[in-house]
Amino acid sequence: MNSRRTFLKQTGLLAAGIAVAPSFACTLPKKHPIGLQLYSLRDVIKNDIKGIISKVAAIGYKEVETYGYSKKGGFWGLDAKAFSILLKDNGIKAPSGHYDLDDFMSGKTSDSLKLCIEAANILGSEYVTVPWLGVNIRQTADDYKKIAQKLNEAGNLCKASGLKLAYHNHDFEFAKIGDTTGYHIMLNETDKKLVDFELDLYWAVRSGNDPLALFKAYSGRFTMWHIKDMDKSKSSFNTEIGQGAVDFKGIFKGNKQSGVKHYFVEHETNYKPNELGSIKTSFDYVNNELL
């Protein structure tokens, strides 16, 4: 009788456990979504935008960062509304986009920025990101101070439209100008309420900088990262994340101090015959080893 009573108690607890388990599982923290800078697929995306986005989603990417938008061509032949629908149908968000803002940054016109703000809002983005600076406007410390003011101006226009501005680096910003660099001038001269920074980890490391030191000096400014690895034998080449020379596990220890909200995998300067296979390798490493 005692054994029967014990059995009933145990099976009752088991049944209760089964009933509770699903709700408990729902409370487990989800992994941070991983994004992809679509420039990684520049050689194939133009041929089949709908198929490529579907495959990017199938790998597991939940976010993308756009590039190359124009009034005439839109996003790879789709206008902003159609591209937004395509992303939504595949369960993907586009929190940021790289937009050509050379005309605005050089002081010619604000039309290009207004066009980009319109597209970003249609996509439901958070950021309009400046991806590059023309060589002619970044020669001196005073040039970078003017750039910082243009970034603040752009930040104000973005803020008025419910967006935020970000700046993406390469390596030229880290070149010495006296006892400072263009990058430090921009960080110091921009309003942190208006301008965020998207730190490209590859370019920072390749130029001899420690991302953790930047996070410490400018806490909370680096709300987006480009996760891009450096080939061990040839620093001018990228490789899949986790197969190169960048210490991502060390860098990720500073993610809270950085203020990072969005991670974007990018392959910029190396390619394999199967670009989709390459971005899957990188996704798997970030998902399994870094998050």
Précis, in short:
The chain has 291 residues and is an alpha/beta fold.
Helical fraction: 40-55%
Coarse structural class: alpha/beta
- Give the ordered list of helices and strands: HEHEHEHHEHEEEHEHHEEEHHEH
Q: What is the alpha-carbon Rg in Å?
A: 22 Å
> What is the 3D form?
globular
Low-confidence stretches: 1-11, 13-26
With helices defined by DSSP (H or I, 4 residues minimum), what is the helix count?
Answer: 12
Largest β sheet strand count, sense and barrel closure: 8 strands, parallel, barrel
- Overall average pLDDT: 92
Distance between the termini: 52 Å
Beta-strand share of residues: 15-25%
Structural write-up:
Helices cover 44% and strands 15% of the residues. By secondary structure, the chain is of the alpha/beta class. The strands form three sheets. The protein has an eight-stranded parallel beta barrel, surrounded by four helices. Helix 3 runs parallel beside helix 5 (111-123) and helix 6 packs across helix 7 (182-189). It is globular, with a radius of gyration of 22 Å. It starts with a helix and ends with a helix.
Which features does this protein show?
globular, 8-stranded parallel β-barrel, 291 residues, disordered N terminus, two-stranded antiparallel sheet, 12 helices
